[in-house]
Design a protein that fits this description.
Number of domains: 1
Oligomer: single chain
Strand order of the largest sheet: 4-3-2-1-5
Strand content: 15-25%
Largest sheet: 5 strands, parallel
Distance between the termini: 26 Å
Number of helices: 4
Number of strands: 5
Radius of gyration: 13 Å
Order of helices and strands: EHEHEHEHE
Structural class: alpha/beta
């Protein structure tokens, strides 16, 4: 049975420790061979824009842009449709490999056999 971890990040620079923890867990899971789907919602949606993750700083934490790159390499990164619209973000505004999808896709991913979901 394939293992899938769906992680929804609901915060960004407004809650840096929670935000970084979500990206760290996602990157660690990818490194462990787990199929990862990282959902960027709320303020974390900004990290799907080129260069934005590089501006995030948290002392004693791995750079967010590096963690995001690890997840993008073999996992999936999704920006919530409504969150993108609220921030006037379209597909062409995002890092290559990041998609925009809505709640039905999130529900489908979380209900897969062997899937686990975490929300930060």
């Amino acid at each position: 049975m394939s293992r899938t971890l769906v992680i929804k990040v609901t915060v960004g620079e407004d809650a840096p420790e929670r935000c970084n923890q979500a990206f760290t867990v996602a990157a660690a899971a990818v490194a462990s061979g787990v199929d990862v789907s990282l959902w960027l919602t709320g303020e974390s949606a900004w990290f799907a824009v080129p260069g934005r993750a590089a501006t995030f700083e948290l002392p004693h934490a791995a750079p967010l842009q590096d963690l995001l790159a690890v997840v993008l390499d073999t996992g999936r990164v999704t920006v919530c449709t409504q969150c993108a619209v609220r921030r006037d973000l379209a597909q062409h505004d995002l890092i290559d490999g990041v998609r925009i999808a809505g709640a039905p896709t999130f529900v489908e991913e979380t209900l897969q056999d062997g899937a686990q979901a975490l929300v930060y």
